[in-house]
């Protein structure tokens, strides 16, 4: 599914990723944990194609295709989806208008027919009900005035509609209360399948209690420094990252 080889990235002459290697298989939920400044969000942005990051070396292969050769919209059409830590508010753009335009653009890029308005509304309402998104929320401008939980639910709604093959969740649990965390996690778990992979970036074990990972990777100083099973997240919750900082200092 996704294979990252020797990825070296900088921004404004500051090196962020230092020869990072990572493999995520089809059907796998891989979690990345690490201290602030380790490069977790940078990794998600570079995979999705955010501007301003300079890739000095390496490859990001999705099903054998090098994403670094594609524009962001082409990466999205290829199956990449990024749920942001802080979703942007877009005044003047109705949520339903945005959702329909995005979904039909993806379908067109994949050679599929655009959805009719009745079919689109039926799909949105079905997913919105599952995520406990009220209809009046769908009538508002995208993310404008939304709470943190509402913004995250809106992103999971987008993900459910687009059906991407590789989903990146960048600290999706940030700003969520217990109920919102449960709802968002249930939405993510409903999308787990043998043909879809997830990269879940988080600081805390609490998210991984709801979205149980197959593998956990520890990121430090722009590299993956340790990998293991879900029990590794419990170890990090108990001990923190002191061991990794000490090994770097040594």
UniProtKB/TrEMBL annotation:
Coiled-coil residues: none
Gene Ontology terms, MF aspect: ATP binding; ATP hydrolysis activity
Entry protein name: Fe-S cluster assembly ATPase SufC
CDD domains the record matches: ABC_FeS_Assembly (cd03217)
Keyword flag Transmembrane: no
Keywords noted in UniProt: ATP-binding, Nucleotide-binding
Residue ranges occupied by any ABC transporter domain in the UniProt entry: 2-246
InterPro entries: AAA+_ATPase, ABC_transporter-like_ATP-bd, ABC_transporter-like_CS, FeS-cluster_ATPase_SufC, P-loop_NTPase
UniProt keyword Cell division, yes or no: no
Family: Belongs to the ABC transporter superfamily. Ycf16 family.
Top-rank taxon, per record: Bacteria
Annotated organism of origin: Microvirga tunisiensis
Pfam families, per database record: ABC_tran
């Amino acid at each position: 599914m996704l294979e990252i080889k020797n990825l070296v990235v900088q921004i404004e002459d500051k090196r962020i990723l230092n020869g990072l290697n990572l493999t995520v298989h089809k059907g796998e939920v891989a979690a990345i944990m690490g201290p602030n400044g380790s490069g977790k969000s940078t990794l998600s942005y570079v995979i999705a194609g955010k501007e301003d990051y300079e890739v000095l070396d390496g490859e990001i292969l999705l099903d054998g295709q090098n994403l670094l050769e594609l524009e962001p919209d082409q990466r999205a059409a290829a199956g990449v989806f990024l749920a942001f830590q802080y979703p942007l508010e877009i005044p003047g753009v109705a949520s339903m208008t945005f959702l329909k335009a995005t979904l039909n653009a993806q379908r067109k890029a994949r050679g599929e027919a655009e959805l009719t308005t009745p079919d689109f509304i039926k799909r949105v309402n079905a997913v919105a009900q599952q995520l406990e998104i009220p209809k009046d929320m769908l009538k508002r401008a995208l993310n404008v005035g939304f709470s943190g939980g509402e913004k995250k639910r809106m992103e999971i709604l987008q993900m459910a509609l687009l059906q991407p093959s590789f989903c990146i969740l960048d600290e999706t649990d940030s700003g969520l209360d217990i109920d919102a965390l449960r709802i968002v996690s249930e939405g993510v778990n409903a999308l787990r399948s043998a043909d879809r992979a997830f990269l879940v970036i988080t600081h805390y074990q609490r998210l991984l209690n709801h979205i149980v990972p197959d593998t956990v990777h520890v990121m430090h100083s722009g590299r993956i420094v340790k990998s293991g099973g879900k029990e590794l997240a419990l170890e990090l919750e108990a001990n923190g990252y002191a061991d990794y900082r000490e090994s770097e200092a040594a």
